[in-house]
Amino acid sequence: MTPELSGERLDVAAASLLSQFSRALVRRWIDSDELTLNEHPAKAKSKVRVGDLIAVKAKKLRLDHDPEAIPLKIEWEDEELLIVNKPAGLVVHPGAGQVAGTLMNGLLHYLPEASQLSRAGIVHRLDKDTSGLLIVAKTAQTQLALIRKLAKRAIKREYRALVVGRPAAHGTVEAPIGRHPVHRTKMAVVDGGRVAVTHFERIHAWERISLLACQLETGRTHQIRVHMQHLGHPILGDATYMGRRATKASESGWIDRQALHARRLTFDHPVTNKKIVIEAAIPDDMNSVIDRLRALESL
127 an active-site residue? Predict the structure, then answer.
């Protein structure tokens, strides 16, 4: 069970982990005891925790999502896992409003055997308009091992972000994150939210925009985006947390998505124990903003 799903109901968590199958099918598996929690039958309303094991022994595993020949930029691969460099605009897995054209559909085409894995082997997520590195497991054992590493904070995830204003040279944001009390599609810093910790360092500051290196200690939904807004320095182009200023940034030709990129992953291989360090260069749209800022600085 992944850290971001800890505390959820079994049916909600299982539907998220097994998103290649319909929610109705997952619920039938729970009700028929074909889906178990820690090797025992459980109620749909049972709460799950980090490290819990969900297993499915269904008579028929029916995929609800089709393989698609979507180009994948693979930065590293072996027999156990691969690391994909996701472009901005690509949804990670099917959900409400998007049943095709996702990274998961592409993985099901590239690795047909991934159809037997939770979320086609995807270990963690990136928002649609965040670019960068994602780990995908090829076996159930490797996927479980990587999820446990995430829970133990043994996978180092580093980002680059362009933010509005000039934050401190470095710092840590430790502020709980939960659903926004009014706008339910948004997250926010709220009392009683889940523990969330983000470290940041300012790489360069221009007059109105700064380039940051951010490191996740936890992995909450929209974490860096919410924490930067909480500091008063929202991510450039973030339509959800920057509001009307994001539209102005797009109209002015700066960038038309949140300027956030998962740049580096560092972890010990779950089978060989070899240290893996993979980097993905900052994409062209963010580099264009940086080049424009440098040009203005030199005037």
Answer: yes
Which SS3 state, helix, strand or coil, does residue 95 take? strand
Q: Tens of pLDDT along the chain (299 residues)?
A: 677 788 889 998 998 887 667 677 889 899 999 999 999 999 999 999 888 888 888 765 545 678 999 999 999 999 999 999 999 999 998 877 788 999 999 999 999 999 888 889 999 999 999 999 999 999 989 998 998 899 889 999 999 999 999 999 999 999 999 999 998 889 999 999 999 999 999 999 999 999 999 999 999 999 999 999 999 999 999 999 987 777 777 767 899 999 999 999 999 999 999 999 999 999 999 999 999 999 988 76
Q: Return the DSSP state at 87.
A: P
What are the start and end residues of each CATH 3.10.290.10 domain in the chain? 3-56
Strands (DSSP E) contained in the chain are 35-37, 54-56, 74-77, 81-86, 131-137, 156-164, 170-174, 177-179, 187-189, 197-205, 209-216, 260-268, 275-279
Please pick, among 31, 52, 127, 256, the residue that the annotation labels catalytic.
127
CATH number of the 3-56 domain: 3.10.290.10
For the chain, give every residue range classified as CATH 3.30.2350.10.
Answer: 74-152, 157-262+284-297
- CATH superfamily for 157-262+284-297 is Pseudouridine synthase (3.30.2350.10)
Strands 275-279 and 170-174: unpaired
For residue 246, the 8-state DSSP code is H
Cα distance between residue 195 and residue 223, in whole Å: 10
Q: Return the CATH fold of 74-152.
A: Pseudouridine synthase (3.30.2350)
45 vs 9, 48, 245, 280, CA distance in Å?
Answer: 5, 9, 41, 40
Nearest-CA neighbor of 265 among 255, 280, 283, 284? Answer: 280
Is this structure's pTM higher than 0.90? no
